[in-house]
Amino acid sequence: MNDLKPSKLKTIDHVNTRLAKRHASEKFFQRMGLLSLFIGIAFVFTLFFSIVSKGYTAFQQTFIQIEVDFDEQFFATEKPYENETLSFADYGGLVKKSLREMFPGVESRQERRLLYGLISTGAAYQLRDMVMHDPTLVGQTKQVWLLASDDVDMLIKGHMEREVPETDRRLRDVQIAWLDQLIAEDSVSLKFNMGFFTNGDSREPEQAGIWGALTGSILTLMITLLLSFPIGVATAVYLEEFAPKNKWTDLIEVNINNLAAVPSIVYGLLGLAVFINFIGFPRSAPLVGGLVLTLMTLPTIIIASRAALKSVPPSIREAALGIGASKMQTVFFHVLPLAFPGMLTGTIIGMAQALGETAPLLMIGMVAFIVDIPSGVFDPATVLPVQIFLWADSPERAFVERTSAAIMVLLGFLIVMNAVAVMLRRKFERRW
Amino acid sequence: MPDRLEGHTFRRFDGELDHLHVEILEMTTLVFEQIQKAIESFQSQDQKEVHAMIEREFRVNILEKKIDSSIIEVLAKRGPVARDLRAIMGFSKMVTDLERMNDEAVRIAHISTKIYPEDNNRDTDMLREIDIIGNLACTVLQEVIEILKTLDLKRARKLLIHNDLDEEFNTSLRRLTTYVLEDALKMKYTINIILVLKSLERIDNHARNLAEYVIYMVSGDDIRHVEDYR
Amino acid sequence: MSLVIEKQWNGQNAQIGERESIRAPEQTHTIVSREDRQTVGITAVSNPRIRCFDVNVHYGNKHAIKNVSLDIGRNEIIAMIGPSGCGKSTFLRCLNRMNDTIDHCTVTGKIELDGEDINDKSIDVVPLRARVGMVFQKPNPFPKSIYENVAFGPRIHGLAKDKTELEAIVVTSLQRAGLWNEIKDCLDQSGTSLSGGQQQRLCIARAIAINPEVILMDEPCSALDPIATAVIEDLMNELCSDYSIAIVTHSMQQAARVSHRTAYFHLGDLIEVGKTEQLFTNPIHQLTSDYITGRFG
């Protein structure tokens, strides 16, 4: 009978002896979680800081003010000026002449070349655009802000050290002297870099812009969205709502899950083989890029959409079926609207993945150096991540800041996409 | 056995029904003793004992009230159905019948004290009638107690089929008539005896009712007022 | 409303009318033992809406319903009771072929709705479900407005010619479901914002909006408080003048309160069918008796 007697210690005593330990372990766990959160945030901030600190200067560009005499003799034609003849005038010579006039002391060929090197080769196009826009300029003399070369830009932004020996830097002493003279005349200034957002790619960093890549990205993503969203949702709806559950659908499900894990370069190879070699679509075209990215994002969208459909309570389906709605009425009137926010999230995730994808696009030629802005889905184009990859690979110092700036644009694009997704979710989301 | 009252998922319900059953048995036994005492009072010399028996009526009444409140409680708390509902209803009706039986027993005792204020002029011939009918009633009651204990359907049916007391009652009446014809002065005495016999007949009827309730409780058959049953 | 029911019992025919003379009952006390799985009681009614013959349901290898034959009469409320997993809900879902939506579920046997075999290949399930409506255990209004909830059924079946007609259907349905007075000012409100009892009445309104012949209710009050339950039970009592109602319930008191007949299921077998009064006072089968008196578990 003795051992049946309740021990002196009550349950609460046992609990109390262990309580401190339990609380300690709980606190430890919480702190570990907090710590990992901080580490994560720290990494993100480091990344952002490094990108922004390197890239923000790319949004400004150095311009040099030069007095240009639009001498009629350059424009080989009489008034009224024809656009065609105007556009063929020797604007490069005009820039050079203006420079020579600004620095009359420069005589030797070598020095002259150095002098011309201060101004970007793009300055000629700048002048041409001015004249084309306003032909009355011919014969006048005007102060014009012309794009400086990338080396000048680097010096002004402080990325090039004056102290290093002359042989170790890209600007000669004489060029720096001229620049100093120009600075003293208040003829050198940093202006907002409009060209970065409106130009296509270029070998010259000061002329390179992301508009071409951005257009390429938008076109590619549009193709991807237009194809992958309907196909993905339709697949998910069929598999989830209509298909019988048997070993075939199981097999399909397993394969879809596997496809989501296939390395993206494989899709690139597939696209190369099927869309370019077999069907004969043009290389580097956003159409092919979109098709390849569609293949890549489909599994993601299907899986997310199926999860969204699964999360719609079966009671809603039963309710609709119970009052005699057909399967399709049930799905389209009741299930899809409820699953839509989830599907949208999946699609946006897929799109974000597609936006940042490089490898498969390399395979289908979107890595080519393309200066023109694509105007359609069949034009050669490149996309933002590939552009970043190309610039990161370029030797010029000035491309470093552009790479970072392009990354910032890409991130901004992503944030906009996510914001749109959140807004759409808010709009469509319903409680049940 | 299908006839058991226990086996509920709520075990306290078992206990409550059991408790009611025991209380009913207790009440029946008590009433049985009262009736026995009442019949014996005609033989016994001891008026004290008769008065004590009459006093004991209150015990039966208290038990009646107690059982009634238990029944109300079970009805309110458990919402019994089927067999349990029938058991509760059966118990409830039994209580009423038992109380009536007790009243009859007390009436008999009162008559006994009235016609035998002192120990004199006993008419043994007439008392024999009480003895015969009383014995019959007691046998029935004893059987009913057994039936109540075991809730035995067969015994209950058997009991209801035979009714010896009715015939015996009529024979007794005839015999008593002859006594009156012999001696008209015995009229008052005879009427009292007849009243006792009538009470005993009623007790028998109530006892049979108990058996009917047992049948209803166990099988759900309501055989009251059924002519072709016997 | 006196239903003269043809009584077939142990092969004997007996007429039970209003003028029931006092006579010796049959040997009802011979309780059917636990092991016997034959249905006892009268499964047939004189004016059936739905007749089921030897219905069997298999979920894969599981035999969920075994040889169930049961009639559901016109203007009758029939309650189906039984322990969890006894197949009562499955049986209910056979009646409007809701089991079609479950994979690996096969239904055999004959179920007739007004003499038509509903499992026949020529029968389309959509009109069938329009004739046999269903209310579910959990109130499941669509996450749309109250009006849309009720209007959905008539709209997809094309019951209203124009907007005013549709509105009239919605209003009468809500009135019949006893919900109109509470929500007439907020028809645009979401159906999910109502209280549990109101939601369930909304579901009933949705079911009667398509004017079915039979309403199946699968534990309609299991998520509701006693007051809401009472309101719905009262509603059922009113509705049964127009519809046949089959209700599955876990609450024996509810079955006893609302139904005219009660069917007891046990592990896929239909054990006993009888008038509710009879079943709850004097069940014939031992299993029924054990279940309704709370002697399981």
Structural commentary:
The complex is a heterotrimer of chains A (432), B (230) and C (297). Chain A has 432 residues and is mainly alpha-helical. Chain A is built from 17 helices and 3 strands. In chain A, helix 1 packs across helix 17. Chain B is mainly α and 230 residues long. Chain B has one domain: Up-down Bundle (Methane Monooxygenase Hydroxylase, Chain G, domain 1). Chain B has 8 helices and no strands. In chain B, helix 2 runs antiparallel to helix 4, helix 6 packs antiparallel against helix 8 and helix 7 runs antiparallel to helix 8. Chain C has a domain of 180 residues: Rossmann fold, CATH 3.40.50.300. In chain C, helix 3 packs across helix 4 and helix 3 runs parallel beside helix 6. The radius of gyration of chain C is 20 Å and the shape is globular. The two termini of chain C are 39 Å apart. In chain C, 47% of the residues are buried. The interface between A and C is medium-sized, with 22 and 29 residues.
